[in-house]
Write a structure and sequence with these properties.
The chain has about 110 residues and is of the alpha+beta class. About 30% of the residues lie in helices and about 20% in strands. It has three helices and five strands; from the N terminus they run E-H-H-H-E-E-E-E. The strands form two sheets. Strands 1-4-5 form a three-stranded mixed beta sheet, covered by helices on one side. Strands 2-3 form a two-stranded antiparallel sheet. Strand 4 and strand 5 form a beta hairpin. The chain is globular. The mean pLDDT is about 85.
Length: about 110
């Protein structure tokens, strides 16, 4: 499960998607994405809300809904849902950045 930054600005989302495609290749199609900015707003890279959502997904086995994600970018269909999904989550990634230059990708896994 991956919580991308998903800011909702076309040029930023396109750049993030291109980075994810380069990093994950064809695996991106099967990774559940849960951008949560539409629900919580942009709290900045250091707020930790995205990381908390990733950890809670592992703990609860629930992937948060991804609202306002109907628009397809560059023909790339994403593994998102506007409804909460009940799936066992073994690994969750929180990927965030800020316009001021802060960047973080945190990887959590069930042990």
């Amino acid at each position: 499960m991956l919580i991308p930054h998903g800011l909702g600005i076309s040029s930023f989302d396109r750049a993030e998607l291109n980075g994810l495609k380069k990093a994950l290749g064809r695996e991106l199609d099967r990774i559940a994405l849960a951008p949560i900015k539409a629900q919580i707003g942009n709290l900045g890279a250091g707020a930790g809300v995205d990381a908390a959502a990733a950890v809670l997904s592992i703990h609860s086995g629930k992937i948060p809904p991804a609202v306002n994600t109907n628009k397809i970018i560059d023909g790339q269909k994403l593994n998102v849902s506007s409804q909460q999904r009940d799936l066992p989550v073994k690994v969750a990634i929180s990927s965030v950045y800020s316009l001021g230059g802060q960047n973080a990708a945190l990887v959590f896994r069930r042990i």
